[in-house]
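Action item from last meeting closed. Structure (303 res):
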């Protein structure tokens, strides 16, 4: 396939080499079953990001183009998903400009993980060798549980992790980029319609391990930190309300069980932000719930 033919092709070109004019063309067009796996990986990794406290970056199925130094030779690969452990790296690659449909990568800029969803062929027969020549550090080959009509009989469902060591790939039961994430766990997550407890637990475990490796935690993520702070506020408010109810019962006063639901936002905020001393003083002196909140507001005319 010449360069002109390559540029005009409307089908999916998995690999193209400018010197040999060799191209690998997908047997079938992309479909829902294929796309669901690659897009599903971003969903799984977003959950890892929350536990990690930092974000990964993705290039989706954009073509990766690499020029062979000193030869003028260009090779192009089209993965199903490209994953970088740092969103900033992706922003830097995209920010450097270039064509909107492909990304120019240099040595050291290859994704930390490449995902290939294999429905109809065996990636190991051709494309995996090209990734090896490029030096892609980690390639995942996913054969979905859902079987397509054109799948070869010998292609069994599952995910295989290929790690680059000494310039050659070896199969591994566990990822190197995502510490502790096992091949069977990734495959299960990619094929679940609704994430199971086991999958969610694995994602949280991997996120914490990845955060420990890079010195981050869930609280470094702004969204997670806000959720945690909200949860702490709710816990503090509930604890202080329970203290109030206990004291009132000891005085023979039956507290209103609906009190927590009927609080105004201002009173809830005071309940959370007040010092321990002012809370205890108001509880000890309060005749009932209304009196407690009057004292907490510091309104002497009502006390």
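Sequence:
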């Amino acid at each position: 396939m010449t360069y002109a033919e390559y540029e005009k092709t409307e089908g999916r070109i998995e690999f193209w080499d400018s010197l040999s004019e060799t191209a690998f063309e997908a047997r079938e067009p992309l479909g829902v079953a294929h796309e669901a796996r690659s897009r599903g990986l971003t969903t799984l990794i977003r959950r890892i990001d929350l536990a990690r406290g930092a974000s990964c970056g993705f290039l989706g199925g954009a073509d990766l183009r690499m020029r062979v130094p000193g030869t003028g030779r260009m090779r192009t690969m089209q993965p199903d998903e490209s994953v970088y452990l740092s969103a900033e790296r992706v922003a830097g690659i995209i920010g450097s400009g270039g064509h909107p449909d492909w990304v120019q990568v240099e040595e050291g800029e290859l994704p930390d993980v490449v995902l290939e969803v294999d429905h109809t062929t065996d990636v190991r027969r051709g494309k995996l060798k090209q990734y090896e020549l490029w030096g892609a550090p980690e390639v995942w080959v996913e054969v979905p549980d859902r079987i397509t009509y054109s799948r070869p009989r010998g292609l069994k469902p599952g995910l295989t992790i290929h790690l680059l060591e000494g310039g050659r790939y070896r199969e591994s039961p566990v990822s190197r980029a995502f510490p502790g994430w096992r091949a069977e766990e990734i495959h299960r997550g990619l094929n679940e319609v609704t994430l199971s407890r086991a999958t969610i637990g694995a994602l949280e475990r991997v996120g914490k391990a990845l955060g420990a490796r890079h010195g981050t935690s869930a609280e470094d993520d702004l969204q997670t930190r806000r959720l945690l702070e909200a949860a702490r506020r709710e816990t503090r408010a509930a604890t202080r309300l329970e203290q109030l109810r206990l004291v009132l019962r000891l005085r023979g006063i039956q507290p209103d069980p609906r009190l927590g639901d009927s609080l105004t936002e201002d009173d809830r905020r005071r309940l959370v932000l007040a010092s321990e001393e002012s809370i205890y003083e108001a509880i000890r002196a309060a005749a009932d719930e209304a009196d407690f909140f009057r004292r907490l507001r510091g309104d002497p005319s009502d006390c």
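Note appended to the action item: The first strand starts at residue 13 and ends at 17.
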